[in-house]
């Protein structure tokens, strides 16, 4: 009986320690976003057509005009730029300096910040003028 109690306590302790860290989940969202923004920027440069990033409370997506100009390509069937869900359950997104993020064929772009916040923690995805993207902790 004592052995069963010890096993039960050990199992409970392991179960409690497995709970995901909210900052780690937010960091995964931010790092994934930074990587996909880099992919979308490279695609816009290679193709010559701007790509727009759209965000919702549950996720985000990329889109661009079709070659003929008649429709919108939403990348649904693209392995990398397909629509994605946030891993963080509650996420707020702020884009600075503007509200619409468009990636174009230009090699030099104005600096950009996308602030991701889960209510307790905040991280920034920053783009420098040279196009470098990095994740930075928000003070």
Automatic annotation (TrEMBL):
Pfam family membership, one: GspH
Q: What UniProt keywords apply to this chain's record, in alphabetical order?
A: Cell inner membrane, Cell membrane, Membrane, Methylation, Transmembrane, Transmembrane helix
InterPro entries noted in UniProt: Pilin-like, T2SS_GspH
Instruction: Name the Gene3D superfamilies for this protein.
Output: minor pseudopilin epsh domain (3.55.40.10)
SUPFAM superfamilies registered for this protein in UniProt:
Pili subunits
Topology relative to the membrane = Single-pass membrane protein
Is Cell membrane tagged as a keyword?
A: yes
Where's the General secretion pathway GspH domain?
30-131
Reply yes or no: does the keyword Lipoprotein apply.
no
Going by the entry's taxonomy, the superkingdom of the source organism is recorded as: Bacteria
What is the annotated localization of this protein? Cell inner membrane
Would you identify the family this protein belongs to, as annotated?
Answer: Belongs to the GSP H family.
Tell me what this protein is called: Type II secretion system protein H
Q: Which species? A: Pseudomonas idahonensis
